[in-house]
């Protein structure tokens, strides 16, 4: 699709003073909006003073200061704009014109407000804000328009970067589809991974900058697909390379590539605010939004009896009742809920008939009695719609709660893995039928939840969940069939595991989504929850008892996202190193794996995901992480007693480094932090110090391996040729709930595996 960044963002804003930028410009990002706010405020101050009769010396000085401040700010702003123009030749002409206009307007405002030194500022001999009242308004309009153009042009550069990054990803994907050797695949996939990291950075920043919550939710859904599909693409491609004649393996791989392309396309649609072939986006209407709009129209009759027709109101109700058929026709809706919904639908029609009758009479004769009857009819109609809304909410959420609870044991997935390894094609076929039934149930659950989600972002989340189950189900089936055909294939087994994890992860996410939907319905949205699945910080640390647990907002998450991604990459590196150990029970490996698991939880926190829900959860996790690091240091001391004397100093030095860094992290995590800014600074420091410890751990693990091999201590350290991780179930220490994770953007770990890739052929 040909996309143009030209329509990215612009301004459509005006103030009471009559100021307004170009009508064709619309602000779509927070960064552009926040840059304009102070300028609009200063200019509005000037405009509001031009007609005031009283002009004291203090007022005149204030006006002059504001005018000078505006001119200086515009000058600095234009300097940046000109630098951007010089770096981007395709926008240089437009940017230069906008910068010249802005500078000229700023200078004009400075001249018009140069009034403090004049005895008679309203004298015609000197043109000022008071003698040329229209001049300052024109200059202000030109200034706002030109500054906005500069911002919009700068925003187009950001959009161009995202499009360029997407194009690089697509080009590399095409190469990945065509490779026929493992060596070539690994080289290209390493490049692909780095390109995906760049794309993740750019789109993550854009997501947090978007003003439209609906677009932000769509962007989040697309980015989630890309992140999960990156690992799927890896294992599905490897399986295809290992079994090139297997049809189910090819189908499995093609499905991943297709889904990634769709997600990449949607990101560009959101960023450029365009759709293929110019078609408009037709989002399905939910029952909640339909009822809300219907009630607004009905209640509007109190103010105006003539603003809409009875046919219009009847059509709106018909649309709502058509959507309730999604519930009444569903095989998964209980008999009781179905009967109540049908009964309330019938009642809603009757209430509307009564309302229309009184409404028509009131239009002809506006008596007191008729207006009272109209008020009663309005109240009864709205009450009936509220009861209908409550009933469909109950039907959807009770079904969702039952299905989530019933399927959390993942018995079908476990059976598919077992029968696949056994090569039992008949049993695999039986369980794939059961998985298809489960998929239909979960897809129906998502459709019904969308109707009662309450907000557009939650609606989009429901649609994303529906798509995920719809797509992942068949992919699990093709992966299971491949394993059944090649039961001894380790890569086919790993591939099935990855797709099963994606299914389990989405089902787990449904519990959180259901909770949010209930929060919106009950008016509790934004309320802080206590997650009892985690050790509560207040029970373990007296210093934290008085602190209120808080979450990071979207802007704070954006600031810390890059640091979190670095932490993610380090966990991949540590995993890569621990996989090389033959003795997985070795104390050093155990501590390393535990620290990696906790660091991964902290990375998820920076994305607003995972089990760490509040800053206090993070700080407590950081303390446990530091304690685990101290235990690892003790294990290093024990190892130093078993190695040769010339190896001891280096090992002891690294152990002391680790102890020092863990103490610093523990002190930071325990330190008191009052207020939003201080809390965020503490979060940033904890993540940074955790990253530093993980960097040291990446160096320690290969060093210990080398010393063990050199001194032949224990059972040996390196596996002969471990190509890829097989079991990706991560279990944290300190009795935390086990977390499943899929290694998505862990590019460095992929590079570490390059040398071992050829061993797949012999497995």
Automatic annotation (TrEMBL):
Ranges of compositional bias, category Low complexity: 7-18
Subcellular location, principal: cytoplasm
Subcellular localization(s) per the UniProt record: Cytoplasm
Pfam families: Vinculin (PF01044)
Keywords per UniProt: Cytoplasm
MF terms (GO), sorted A to Z: actin filament binding; cadherin binding
Region annotation Disordered: where it falls in the sequence: 1-20
InterPro entries referenced in this protein's UniProt entry, alphabetically: Alpha-catenin/vinculin-like_sf, Alpha_catenin, CTNNAL1, Vinculin/catenin
Cellular component, GO, one term: cytoplasm
Protein family: Belongs to the vinculin/alpha-catenin family.
Full protein name: Alpha-catulin
Originating species: Nesospiza acunhae
